[in-house]
Amino acid sequence: MCGIVGILGRGPVADQIVDSLKRLEYRGYDSAGVATLEGAHIDRRRAEGKLKNLEAKLGKSPLAGHIGIGHTRWATHGKPTEANAHPHAAEGVAVVHNGIIENFRELRIELEKGGAKFVSETDTEIVAHLVSSYLQKGASPIDAVKQSLPRLKGAFALAFLFKDHDNLMIGARKGSPLAVGYGDGEMYLGSDAIALAPFTDDISYLEDGDWVVLTRKGCEIHDESGNIVKRDVLKSGASAFMVDKANYRHFMAKEIHEQPEVVGHTLARYVDMASERVALPMKLPFDFKDVQRISITACGTASYAGFIAKYWFERFARVPVEIDVASEFRYREAPVRKGDLAIFISQSGETADTLAALRYAKQQGMHTLAVVNVTTSTIARESETVMPTLAGPEIGVASTKAFTCQLMALATLALAAGKARGELSDADEAKLVQALVKVPRLMADALTHEAAIEKLARDIAKSKDVLYLGRGTSYPLALEGALKLKEISYIHAEGYAAGELKHGPIALIDETIPVVVIAPYDRVFDKTVSNMQEVAARGGNIILMTDAKGAEEATVDSMVTIVMPDMDSAFTPLVYAIPVQLLAYHTAVVMGTDVDQPRNLAKSVTVE
Ligand code: AGP
Questions:
Q1: pLDDT (0 to 100) of residue 241
Q2: Nearest-5° angle of CA 448, CA 153, CA 443?
Q3: Does the CB atom of residue 347 touch ligand 1 within 6 A?
Q4: What average pLDDT score do residues 474-486 get?
Q5: Residue 174 in contact with residue 444, Cβ under 8 Å?
Q6: Is 373 touching ligand 1 by the criterion CB < 6 Å?
Q7: Which residues are catalytic?
Q8: At the fourth CATH level, which superfamily is domain 272-437?
């Protein structure tokens, strides 16, 4: 994941920036760079590969500026070359960036028409040229950034350095994290408190949509509408912990909020955004054309990610998929076909049942592919092919960001399968990749419903039982919603396919039962509305998660409707996971449970 550092210092800052970037190495990267203001102009050093390559360049050709920005890049648009490494620059400005600029293609065409010359394949360079275009029209740096930000679509964090301005830096946050650090006559910007730990403990975390103007004396933070706002200054304590909670009360809350960023990084690992193609970085030791059946095996939340992926593989690649929980698969002596594909999904990569299932599949001569978060784990080591999820360390026992990163990795694999099997055309692939590229931004939009969900959680916390309903890919998400709620709030919850309700669970419905209905406006929406009517007729309290069209069309009174952004119906679980997770989280907070370490549960289940 990309890391951002900015320093307004009292002496040369390049070495400090590199030290700080070293603390961000844990996020993963494949190139790095620094820019400082040398006299009146901006100078840069960038290098492919690890920070030692950048240090070698700085050793030969030092930078002396007292103000600078630095970056570790995890390649998204374009290869990890020096030309694509950040900072990117255009006349008068340099920028570092974390995240995805969705509308980079349109902006690039527009800027090229205006005479901009691009020298990289990145989406970031567009930002430099856009700001520069306003500077060239006479705008001040602050106005140039202010005019540019609303034109950028996506989930991102940015830091800007300006020619001729030795006492000015601007940062912006929309979907990806950014923190301000307060020093003694110095100021800092960083992706997290860990990056800033060598310099200061006093940190403000920017909120979504914020942008900040820094000088050595302090900073002025603006919200998305341009109002000057105050953000709390906190003592970070990050020097003591490599993984901290930022300003969140629990790791789970932090991990829910990290999703636009880490899901974006997982996406970037498996697609080429510039060409809108799936581009798996690993060579598959089998041809999807020869696979007659896929078996997916996992436990808990990871198994629900697999269940959602079943719908994707069957729809995009027309290949039948069997989904099993690992504790059953390992003992049921499933007849499998040699040469078929077995997929294993695990955050920890150490889950005993999943590992045993993997070993069984290998013995049967299946190809094995593991979607794992911990790449040094046993499951990763023992699988023929590994697809890492780039969620970063997940500390909360309740899985959140690992789940959505698993979904993102599996979505790209399903598209790769569809392409290889001739079921998806180039145009289908481009359309679906475009839909995936929008997901991080839509997740950030979904997070804006937190206050309403927090309020709702106070009612849910009074309930003894909660039902979750969904159809299609929303059905496994309903199962995940119920699991999330019960594991951290200890309230009994069940997930059902909405159409199954009338075959039994409807007997439970009365006015004491909240029923969470996950129903984006898709081809099964009307059917789900009929099931909601059955619930309403029996006095059940409906909490509807849908989009604007769904909210308009739903003919049933719901207790609450949470309106999600409009999106491609194929990938709704990635975005609807957010309200589902937030509802469980805030209910648990109201219940006063140990959210990050709920009773009886372990993060990594290494026993049967
Ligand atoms: C989810 O919130 C869980 N605590 C649990 O179901 C978990 O997903 C399961 O134990 C699988 O773990 P893994 O992904 O590390 O294999």
A1: 46
A2: 35
A3: yes
A4: 98
A5: yes
A6: no
A7: 2, 603
A8: Glucose-6-phosphate isomerase like protein; domain 1 (3.40.50.10490)
Question: Would you say the CB of residue 354 lies under 6 angstroms from ligand 1?
Answer: yes
DSSP string, 303-349: HHHHHHHHHHHHHHH---EEEEEHHHHTTTT----TT-EEEEEESSS
367-372 and 385-388: which strand pairing?
Answer: parallel
Q: Answer yes or no: is the C-beta of 581 below 6 A from any ligand 1 atom.
A: no
Tens digits of residue pLDDT in 389-406? 999 889 899 999 999 999
What ligand 1 atom has the least distance to the C-alpha of 299? 11
Contact present, 141 and 160 (Cβ < 8 Å):
yes
User: Which contacts qualify for 163-166: CB closer than 8 Å, 24 or more apart?
Assistant: 163/37, 163/40, 163/41, 163/42, 163/91, 163/92, 163/93, 164/40, 164/92, 165/37, 165/141, 166/37, 166/66, 166/67
Whether the link from the prior residue into 87 is cis, omega within 30° of 0, is yes
Write phi, then psi, for 435 (nearest 5 degrees). -65, -40
Topology classification of domain 3-247? Glutamine Phosphoribosylpyrophosphate, subunit 1, domain 1 (3.60.20)
pTM for this entry? 0.82
299 CA distance to ligand 1 middle (Å): 6
